[in-house]
Design goal:
This protein is mainly alpha-helical and 154 residues long. It has seven helices and two strands. The protein is globular.
């Protein structure tokens, strides 16, 4: 699974908004706090606004805020705002893939992988992310020794 810079930056910006949801945040401050290019962040904030996750106000006291409570926005919501979906195989949904021969059952593997990925991202809200408090299923995955090894089990 590859997470793009755009998705990573969107989640980081949303986390900054979630950390002080009652406050209006200037794009410049968000960009600086997370080390993100301002022009790139403005595009990302526009995507989040179009997805209904962020509101923005112009003017001296303007800025960006979450459109809903951080507890009501999942990490999956932010990913979908950037990519349109959580998991695809070069633009196709896993269940639409058809393979032949020895790879016939690869569709099943992709569907299962999407399910696992979706479960984590939908279970973690922006409030959870900011607080570092996750559900038991996510904690169990974090605590697996092999979870911290990019190359899999040794």
């Amino acid at each position: 699974m590859r997470v793009t810079a755009r998705v990573d930056y969107a989640i980081r910006a949303a986390a900054e908004l979630a950390a002080a949801p009652e406050k209006s945040h200037k794009a410049e401050v968000l960009a600086k706090s997370q080390g993100i290019s301002l022009s790139f962040l403005e595009t990302i904030l526009g995507d989040l606004r179009r997805a209904g996750l962020v509101t923005s106000h112009r003017g001296r006291d303007g800025g960006h805020q979450l459109a809903r409570s951080p507890a009501d926005i999942s990490v999956a919501d932010v990913v979908r705002a950037q990519t349109g979906n959580l998991f695809d195989i070069y633009g196709h949904r896993p269940e639409d893939m058809e393979y032949t021969g020895a790879a016939t059952h690869l569709t099943d593997v992709w569907v299962a992988a999407r399910s696992a990925y979706r479960r984590v991202l939908e279970d973690v809200t922006l409030a959870d992310l900011v607080d570092g408090v996750f559900g038991d299923d996510v904690v169990a995955l974090i605590e697996l020794p092999d979870s911290w090894n990019s190359h899999g089990p040794n």
